[in-house]
Amino acid sequence: MPEAKPKLSMIxxxxxxxxxxAALTLANGAAGQGMEVTIFFTFWGMNLLRRTTLESxxxxxALFKRMMPVGVEKIGLSKMNFGGVxxxxxxxxxxxxxxxxxxxxxxxxxxxQIHFVACEASLKLLGIRPDxxxxxxxxxxxxxxxxLQNARESQISFFI
Length: 160
Hints:
It comes from Hydrogenispora ethanolica. This is Peroxiredoxin family protein. It holds the Pfam family DrsE_2. The chain is an alpha/beta fold. It has helices at residues 17-32, 59-67, 85-96, 102-111, 120-126, 144-152; strands at residues 7-12, 36-41, 115-119, 139-142, 156-159. It has a 5-stranded parallel beta sheet, with helices on both faces. Helix 1 (17-32) runs parallel beside helix 4. The longest helix has 16 residues, at 17-32. The protein is globular and about 50 Å long. The mean pLDDT is 88.
């Protein structure tokens, strides 16, 4: 029987560009070394998984959904966001240095079949429906119990 791959489990709580870059860099690095990687997206991290915003007839849900960015291309910086100019400047700097943006790293994570788990409780709380999420074969919706089971089996765990 083949030996099980070592595992890395990560919680991505933040939806900030710089923090998403750190999480995705770590995830891709681990996958590149042959590890099985799972990212549990919760609260603001869920914005990376969103592809659209569907209407809600609940006022607070509708308000939150309109204020939150949709997708990895729209996320802001945690510091020096400058009303949205900060991410544009950061992307320009990354391109000048032949680096990869958060969107590039997100696509690479999907190519490397990194497992994405959308937090079921966060979806409910924020009023995000499953059909608002990206289409990805390795995306599942699950609760914290699923993450904890995966984390127990992992050699490395992160919270970002």
